[in-house]
Structure formats: C-alpha cells, structure tokens
C-alpha cells in the first residue's frame, strides 16, 4: 500500500465513531445507560427492518412506533451525552420513555382509535398533545431552534389564524380537532414524511452504514485517487470523484463531508490549495451526493411518494443534472488549479485504481443488486432491504471463506452462498433470512467470526443513530404539512405566485429559489423541500412547469441552501477539518457551485434536460437529438460561466473578459430567441482569443518571437 493510500486507510479507520448527529456529540454515552442506548438503537434497527421485510403491522402502527423509537433514542442520547446532572438525565430519559409509550399506545389501541375518530377520550388527547410537544423538543435538541420555530409558527396559525386579517384568516379550529389532526391522523406527525422515513430512508441509511463498515469508502477513495490523482489539481479532483461515488450509497451531504473530508481536505491542503478552498471543494462535491443516483437523498423517496411515481422516474429526472453538477465541480477545480499552477500527485505515490477494484470487487455486488432491483420495478423498500441483506451476507461470509483452505473450495463456497442469497427473487425473504441466521451461527464459534458479528452489530446501531436527524425532521415537518391541509393556507400562497408569474415565470422561479435558500438557512433539506414544494409546486404547475421538474427545482435549491451563507451546514461541517471558518468555506463553495445554480432554471425552460417531454426540436429531429443538444448547450454554458467566475482558461482573464465569458454562458442558459446563437458565437470568439493569448505567452516564455 502506498503512503497516500495508507493515510486514506488510517483516516477512515474510525470514521463512524467520529460522525456527529446534528446537535449531539458522537457515541452512545458511558456506562450502563450508554449500553442501554446502544441496545435501543439495535432494537430500533431490527424492528424497522422486520416491518420492512414482512409488513406485518398496519401503516399507522409502524409510523407511530417509528416516532416512538426516534423519541426514545433521541432523548436517551441527550440524557447520556448532554445532560450534566443526575436529575437532568432522569428527566430526559423520562421524556424518551414517554415518547416511546405514545407509539405503544397507538399500537395497543389501534382499532379503538379508529372507532373513536372525532370523539377522542381525555387520555387520547393527552397522548396526542404529548407526542406533539415531545416532537418539538426533540427537533429543538437535535436540529436546533429554526425548524422548531417554523413548525411552531404554523401550529400557532391553526390556533389563532381566525384573528388574522384577510387573506390569512381561517374559520378557527377546536383544541380537540387540532390534536386529533396532528397527533393521530395521517396528515400530521404521522404523515407522508414519517412514513417515508420509516419505510425507505432508515433502510438506506443502515445500508450505507454497512457498506462503509465493509470498506466501501476505502474502495471509493483508492479508486478516485488512482484514477484522477495524477491529473492537474489531482487532490481536488479526487475529492470530487470520491464524493460522487460516495453519494451513490449515502445520500447525505453532511455525512459525506465528515467521511470523505477526513482524507481529501488535508490532501488538498498538502498540495497547495488554500484551506477555505479545500473545504469548499469537499462541501460542494459532497452535497451533490443527494442528487446522485442510485441512492439519492431522502428527499427523492419523499418526492416519489408525494408525486405517486416510481422511484426510477425520480432517478431518470436526476441523472443528467447530477452528472452536470459534478462536471461543474471538476471543471471549476481544474480551472482553479491551472490558475494557481498546481500539478497532480506523483504517479509513484498513487494506488492502482483497477487493482483496488479487483481486490475489493465483492463490495460492488450489493450496490449492483440494489441498482438492478430499483430499475427492475421493485419498490425501494424491497430493493433497500434486499441490498442490505446481501451486504450482511457478504460481510458474514468473508471470515468463513477465509477459513477454507483450497481456493477451489473457497470459490465453490461463494458460488453456493451467492445462489442461496439470490434466491429471494423467486423464493421470498425467508430463505435469505435463513442464510443470514446460519452465517451468524457459524461466525459465533470462532474469534474472527465473532469480531465480524460485532461489526454488524455496530453498523446496526450506528445506522439507527445516523437516521435520527432525518427521522426527527420528518416528524416535526409533518406539523407544517398538517397546517397546510387543515387550513388551506397553501392556496393563498399559490395564488400570489401565480399572479406574479402570469407576466414573468422567471421572477416566480427566482422567488421560489430565494424561498428555498432562506428556509435552508435554518432547516435541513428534507423539511425545506416539503414546505417549499407544498407551496410552490402547484403554483409552478399552473404556470406550465411540469410537476416533476418543479419538485426537482425545489430539491436542487434545497441542496444549494446548505452551501449558501450565512448558515451553510455542509461548510461548517468541513470547517474543523479544513481549519478555516465556515463562512470562508461557504463563499468558496458558492463560487464553485455558482455555475450549477443555473441547471434548475435550464431544466424549467428545457425539460428534456431532466429527460422529460421534448419541445419543437424533438418533433422536428427526434427526442435523442434534442436531449443531446440540450446537454451540449448546458455543458458549454456552464463551462463559459466557470471561466468567467474563476478568471482563467489558458491564461488569466481581465475583468472585462470575465464579464464577456459570463454573458456568453448566460446567453446559452436563457431559452430566448437567438440567445443560443449569440452564446455559441461569443463563446467561440472568447475561447479563441484565450487560446491565442496562451500561445503568445508560451512563445514569450520560451524566448521565441511572437
């Protein structure tokens, strides 16, 4: 192993232990209470996986138990990791137990609660109001004040909106109706977001935890390092490629920063990049993981459920923008490297990327199986559960295979195990479960096997812990959605957007973008998307924007909000690693991603960029021609815009030249008459001038006559 690859391994060795759930220190806490919290996390994971695999419980019970486990584990960790006094620890553990009992209450009295709809008992009202209060407190503890305050404002509107002036006034609602709507129905806390958290998101978070424990992060880093580490600006290119690969399984921007950044940011700094720029590269690339198929961010699953479309349709719409996003990152860091005169890493210090794949190729099999299942029409729940089961089979089978002497017998073992694991497609999950149980029993009898079981145990617990911020956000944002459905206030907002957009669609899009960015200053991507899409999605549809495109527009800018100052979560996560201020990192990230801000606007005016319906070009020349042209135009526009922002192509560009590059790039982005022609001509002229100046300067440097 080379020095750099070894450094990669060392940095990754304890990366899970270093991860921090938002608002909580790492770990589960010391002593017996720490072991209890650890056990609760494992139980939470096993319960969720069992309900996903067998669907043995009603949906309402699953949602309520999911919230109950979220509250129990959240307040348990707050007690263990935050509370300083014994009374404080007892208080928070009591809150957690009370939250868990609300889930048990919904399970035990499931039929009775259905029969009592509209006529809740006093105990029902206490439990319903209690879960609302506990969800607020959990959100405040783990996500901070902003999201809790936003949800609180919406809930207060339900109570006091009848006293507001028109058009905000509503008819008024009783305490009993509000508690029933938010605390028991499927349009409040137990609405679509928490269903998606329980059914989809949790499984994929645990799936990513198992893959990373198995060494997938090391494989991605070694592959990226060997493939692009020797190119111009190699360390930054490694950060972009490894984050793109990591995004295929993680879907969490902040987690990607913490995981990949431990290796890539110090590497970039060592080879000449400024600290703030290195942090900006990692933050920008990592946030793209949320739109990188096959396992996108949690929002993608919520979007599929909200729009009632297959997950594969979301992937189809996201694939081209995702590739363009990372192309922007590659292009910008390459220009910056050329501007600073930075070279690539020495070839003799780089690992062989294909050898890394050859040595660790089994890790790719569960990801390949997941991709196949998603695109073969299976539900994300089934695909994620089976993908996770295959990872477990791979991890548990490795120490057993190592004890088989002859290579031929080892090959036979893996073939037999692979066939048994793959049989779930026609024999159901029971056989696959039996295979896993058999492997667990076999591993329990020797030392290496028991260590492997500990890895799986720790991955289950860490996966549950990693899912807490997402799950709590889904629970509290249900209060916002519940307010919209109960009061109908969304129609007021929609009418305002439509009245603005009647004369100017671009202005409506800008207002929607600003809404996403402003909300993103205080809340995560998931509630940002849910709130903004609920308000702006129908309005943009009325203005002629396809519904899927409008939701992707909101999703995209929800991601950009985590890079935008003053509150840029991904950038502040990179700050301690880069040893620079989060604000400086954020300014660099916005610069790096600036060209990418235009992609959603292009998709609205040319939906074929998201592989949606074509326009006149598709009718005249065929759909593939239009898609190819739009992608080429997007690449050209982004490329020219990047040169204008960085101020370098072949040589340094002056301010006037940079403004002309920006104008040419924006001309290609606009969907107006003759703007494409203007942009292409201006771009060719400017690139030609840059090339000619570069040749002249090179000749002067060699002492040749110009």
UniProtKB/TrEMBL annotation:
In terms of NCBIfam families, this protein maps to:
TRAP_fused
GO cellular component terms listed in the entry, alphabetical order: plasma membrane
Q: Which UniProt keywords apply?
A: Cell inner membrane, Cell membrane, Membrane, Transmembrane, Transmembrane helix, Transport
Which PANTHER family does the UniProt entry name for this protein?
BLL3936 PROTEIN
Known role: Part of the tripartite ATP-independent periplasmic (TRAP) transport system.
Show the GO MF annotations.
transmembrane transporter activity
For this entry, the protein name equals Sialic acid TRAP transporter permease protein SiaT
Q: How does it sit in the membrane?
A: Multi-pass membrane protein
Q: What is the lineage of its organism?
A: Bacteria, Pseudomonadati, Pseudomonadota, Alphaproteobacteria, Hyphomicrobiales
> What are the TRAP C4-dicarboxylate transport system permease DctM subunit domain coordinates in residue numbering?
131-396, 411-612
UniProt subcellular location: Cell inner membrane
Primary residence: membrane
Keyword Membrane among UniProt keywords: yes
Q: Which residues cross the membrane?
A: 36-57, 63-83, 90-111, 117-136, 143-164, 194-211, 311-333, 363-396, 432-449, 470-498, 504-522, 529-549, 589-607, 627-650
The parts of the chain that form a coiled coil are none
Which gene is this protein's source? Answer: siaT_2
């Amino acid at each position: 192993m080379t020095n750099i690859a070894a450094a990669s391994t060392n940095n990754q060795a304890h990366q899970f232990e270093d991860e921090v759930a938002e608002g909580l220190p790492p770990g589960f806490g010391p002593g017996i209470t720490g072991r209890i919290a650890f056990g609760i996390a494992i139980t939470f994971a096993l319960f969720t996986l069992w309900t996903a695999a067998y669907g043995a419980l009603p949906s309402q019970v699953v949602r309520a138990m999911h919230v109950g486990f979220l509250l129990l584990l959240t307040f348990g960790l707050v007690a263990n990791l935050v509370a300083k006094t014994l009374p404080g620890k007892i208080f928070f553990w009591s809150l957690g137990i009370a939250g868990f009992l609300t889930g048990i209450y919904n399970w035990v009295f499931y039929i009775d609660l259905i029969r009592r709809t509209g006529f809740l008992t006093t105990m029902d009202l206490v439990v319903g109001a209690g879960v609302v209060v506990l969800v607020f407190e959990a959100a405040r503890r783990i996500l901070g004040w902003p999201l809790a305050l936003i949800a609180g404002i919406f809930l207060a509107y339900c109570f006091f909106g009848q006293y507001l002036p028109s058009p905000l006034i509503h008819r008024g609602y009783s305490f009993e109706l509000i508690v029933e709507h938010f605390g028991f129905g499927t349009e409040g806390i137990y609405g679509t977001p928490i269903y998606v958290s329980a059914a989809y998101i949790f499984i994929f978070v645990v799936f990513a935890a198992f893959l990373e424990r198995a060494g997938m992060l090391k494989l991605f880093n070694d592959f990226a390092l060997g493939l692009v580490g020797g190119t111009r600006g190699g360390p930054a290119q490694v950060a972009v490629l490894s984050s793109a690969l990591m995004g295929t399984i993680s879907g969490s921007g902040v987690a990607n920063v913490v995981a990949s950044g431990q290796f890539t940011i110090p590497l970039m700094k060592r080879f000449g990049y400024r600290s703030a720029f290195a942090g900006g590269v990692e933050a920008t690339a990592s946030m793209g993981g949320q739109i990188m198929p096959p396992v996108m961010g949690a929002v993608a699953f919520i979007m599929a459920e909200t729009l009632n479309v297959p997950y594969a349709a979301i992937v189809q719409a996201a694939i081209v923008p995702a590739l363009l996003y990372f192309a922007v990152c590659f292009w910008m860091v390459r220009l910056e490297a050329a501007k600073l005169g930075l070279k690539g890493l020495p070839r003799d210090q780089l690992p062989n990327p294909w050898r890394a794949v050859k040595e660790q190729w089994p890790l790719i099999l569960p990801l390949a199986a997941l991709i196949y299942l998603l695109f073969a029409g299976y539900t994300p729940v089934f695909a994620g559960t089976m993908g996770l089961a295959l990872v477990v089979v791979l991890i548990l089978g490795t120490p057993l295979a190592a004890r088989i002497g002859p290579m031929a017998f080892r090959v036979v073992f893996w073939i037999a195990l692979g066939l048994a694991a793959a049989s779930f497609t026609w024999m159901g999950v029971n056989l696959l479960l039996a295979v896993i149980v058999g492997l667990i029993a076999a591993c329990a009898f020797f030392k290496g096997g028991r260590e492997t079981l500990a890895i799986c145990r720790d991955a289950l617990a860490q996966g549950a812990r990693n899912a807490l911020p997402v799950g709590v956000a889904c629970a509290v944002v249900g209060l916002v959605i519940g307010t919209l459905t109960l009061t109908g206030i969304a129609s007021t907002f929609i009418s305002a957007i439509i009245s603005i957009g009647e004369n100017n669609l671009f202005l409506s899009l800008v207002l929607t973008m600003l809404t996403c960015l402003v909300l993103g200053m205080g809340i995560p991507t998931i509630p940002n998307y849910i709130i903004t899409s609920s308000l702006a999605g129908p309005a943009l549809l009325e203005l002629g924007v396809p519904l899927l495109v409008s939701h992707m527009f909101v999703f995209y800018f929800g991601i950009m909000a985590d890079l935008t100052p003053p509150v840029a979560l991904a950038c502040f996560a990179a700050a301690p690693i880069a040893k620079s201020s989060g604000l400086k990192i954020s300014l660099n990230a916005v610069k790096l991603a600036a060209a990418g801000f235009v992609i959603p606007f292009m998709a609205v005016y040319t939906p074929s960029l998201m592989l949606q319906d074509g326009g006149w070009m598709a009718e005249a020349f065929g759909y593939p021609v239009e898609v190819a042209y739009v992608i080429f135009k997007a690449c050209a526009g982004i490329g020219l815009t990047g040169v204008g922002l960085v101020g370098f192509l072949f040589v340094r560009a002056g301010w006037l030249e940079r403004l002309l590059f920006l104008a040419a790039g924006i001309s290609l982005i606009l969907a107006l008459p003759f703007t494409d022609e203007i942009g292409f001509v201006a771009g060719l002229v400017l690139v030609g001038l840059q090339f000619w100046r570069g040749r002249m300067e090179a000749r002067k440097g060699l002492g040749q006559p110009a």
